[in-house]
Amino acid sequence: MSSGAGRLDVARVRGLFPGLSDGFVHADGPGGALVPESVLRAVSQAMRVPIANRGGVFPSSARAEALVSGARSAIADLTGAHPSGVVLGPNLTTLTYLLARALAKHWRAGDELVVSRLDHDANIRPWLQVAEEFGLVVRWAEVDIETGELPAWQYDDLFTRRTRLVAVTAASSAIGTRPDVAAIAARAHEAGAVVYVDGAHAAPHVLLDVRALGADFLALSAYKWGGPHVGAVVASADLLAELWPDKLLPAPDRVPDRFEIGTPPYELYAGVAASVDHLAALSTAATGSRRERLAASMTAVARYEEELFTRLDRGMRAMTHVQVLGEPPQTTPTLSFTVARMRPRQVAAELARRGVCAWDGDYYARELFDAIGVNETGGAVRLGLMHYNTAEEVERLLEAVSGLR
């Protein structure tokens, strides 16, 4: 068993990231984390040896098989799932489109889907588009604009006997909100619906457990926690066996392979496994299985990031020229803000000039920012912390934003 989380040795952690040598404050983690040296090395080493396609009887084909198996096992450990239910693909968006169409084959005109204004468009638009094509009804869960919360109680009024699917995020990459997914999923299952959870933004900050969440499908993006640009969707193998995606005739029929269209980037799968190992090794006090080490390390990460974010959040809200969007009680270390008399692009450019990387716009949270009313002026500016950020960097962030008066 794991010996415990311990504290995060941030100096050691920062030494794992060659990208930190540029001197910038990288507060753009929600758009994609920096990549640790171990992931770079794993991808490079995989490309230095022969790799063929899977299914052959020679060593380079066996290497490809091992890379796929390794990536699936890593994602399974990260989410508390089984490798037989891990579907790998180019990104979360592509996989969600694929699964939306596969699921829609089981639905009839008049069936209902529930989506939320809090979500990234990757967990909204695929469902809206299949709804339009197949004559489905879409119901919306709304965000409390003042707090940024997604109240679970409202779902009681959204479900009917014809609800087939609920799509919801485990954490907003725009304003950080972590809704009560388990409560929403429990209501959905009572109505006989399946639950599709976007776990991309939550995964770098908390230990995900697909069963505890109540997720029938859990979608991920490895680049969010320092991996390569590879997506994954986790489900039970039995549930996947009920679905038939569009695929080529000679492609495998077995699960989960039939969902993995085309020749995969085997070398990047080496990076996926290495990135999960990176997360598991963040706490030097962690021991046991990889899942146990992940639990200890992510506990240490969450504790550390909460301390950093509390200082950042309080400092930002104390500035009279800054408006922070929402104030959710459960959050990742992520916030969005606007500055009086400045457009978000101007703010981001000024921060970059002062050595801070920050995103501006809607970051694909189009529905949320339309509801809040900031898209008309260019959206907002986002700051997001990761396990490689420091208290000194938070002070630099606050000083940079303060100087925008």
Helices and strands, with pairings:
Elements lengths: L9 H5 L10 E2 L10 H11 L11 H21 L6 E4 L2 H13 L7 E5 L8 H10 L2 E5 L21 E7 L11 H10 L3 E5 L11 H4 L3 E5 L9 E4 L2 H5 L24 H15 L9 H28 L4 E3 L9 E6 L4 H10 L2 E2 L1 E3 L4 H7 L7 E5 L6 H12 L3
Please provide a written account of the structure.
Helix 2 runs antiparallel to helix 9 (266-280) and helix 3 (59-79) runs parallel beside helix 9 (266-280). The chain has helices at residues 10-14, 37-47, 59-79, 92-104, 125-134, 181-190, 210-213, 237-241, 266-280, 290-317, 344-353, 366-372, 391-402; strands at 25-26, 86-89, 112-116, 137-141, 163-169, 194-198, 217-221, 231-234, 322-324, 334-339, 356-357, 359-361, 380-384. The protein has 13 helices and 13 strands. The chain folds into 2 domains: 10-37 and 298-402, Aspartate Aminotransferase, domain 1 (Alpha-Beta Complex), CATH 3.90.1150.10; 42-277, Type I PLP-dependent aspartate aminotransferase-like (Major domain) (Aspartate Aminotransferase, domain 2, 3-Layer(aba) Sandwich). The N and C termini lie far apart (52 Å). With 405 residues, the protein is an alpha/beta fold. The chain is 37% helix and 14% strand.
